[in-house]
Amino acid sequence: MTCVHGVSPLIMIVEDNPLIVEFVEIHLQREKFSVVAATGCTEAVQLLRKHVPGLIILDIVLDDGNGCDLCRLIRTGGSDGEFARIADVPILILSARADEEDRLEGFRAGADDYLTKPFSPAELTFRIKSILRRSIGLSIACIEIGALQIDPRRREVYVNHHPVELTPKEFELLHLLASHPGRVFSREELLERVWGYSYMGNTRTVDVHVNRLRHKLELAGEGSCNNMISTEWGAGYKLESPALLEAEVGGTGIHRLLNSH
């Protein structure tokens, strides 16, 4: 185990290759991050009982276990709830497994990002900073807005208590909007907060994902989630509760209710 004290946030590396650990540590220290490293799942669990990292860099193939299993353990808070305090910690998987199914498995386990080896230390650093920036202001508690229910720790979404299958980006987009109901997010901000530094596309990607998300919610909700995600022309998108949507029926909005008393 290696620790560098005095600088925050703390980054935990779970990696059984000492050369990679040293390489990553050097670059993270240059960026003023504190670092703690574990060589496998067992040591990582021990360290997590003592430390609350700001982010975890996690390999999948470890000598004493599978990184995805460790990721699931963290996300569920542990069998006895001992890791509930860190169930929302951002996790970046750093693995040589580059197949789509491996990446999807990592996201299903609860990872926030996935970077394949070999990797650029500059890209790793930017991804870490982007994840930490995107995690600010997100609710980690279960969210319930009308018929919509979101469990961020399990990355599960329900409408009228029925599960809704979303892609990782659709989930992140919905979670961000639902964490700030009524707030308008520009397309550029959504692109940055959800896709982060590494994405080189344009804002049309946001429109496509919003449309798919709307379709899935409306299909599952049978009308209960219609228009929940609204377009603010020239500004962006926002998610509103059914109560506010009902108040806006008739064109005069909430001001009509206020003026009637």
Q: Work out the helix count.
A: 10
Rg, alpha carbons: 20 Å
Query: Which strand-content bin applies to the residues?
Result: 15-25%
CATH topology value of the largest domain: Rossmann fold
In a nutshell, what does this entry contain?
The protein has helices at 18-30, 41-48, 67-75, 100-109, 121-135, 168-179, 187-195, 204-221, 242-247, 254-259, and strands at residues 3-4, 10-14, 34-38, 55-58, 61-62, 65-66, 91-95, 113-116, 143-145, 148-151, 156-159, 162-163, 229-232, 236-239. It is an alpha/beta fold.
Task: Describe the protein.
This protein has 261 residues and is an alpha/beta fold. The protein folds into two domains: 10-136, Rossmann fold; 143-249, Arc Repressor Mutant, subunit A, CATH 1.10.10. The chain is 41% helix and 19% strand. It contains ten helices and 14 strands. The protein has helices at residues 18-30, 41-48, 67-75, 100-109, 121-135, 168-179, 187-195, 204-221, 242-247, 254-259, and strands spanning 3-4, 10-14, 34-38, 55-58, 61-62, 65-66, 91-95, 113-116, 143-145, 148-151, 156-159, 162-163, 229-232, 236-239. A six-stranded mixed beta sheet has the order 1-3-2-4-7-8, sandwiched between helices. The longest helix is centred in the last third of the chain and has 18 residues, at 204-221. The radius of gyration is 20 Å and the shape is globular. The termini are far apart. Mean pLDDT is 84; it is low at 1-7 and 247-261.
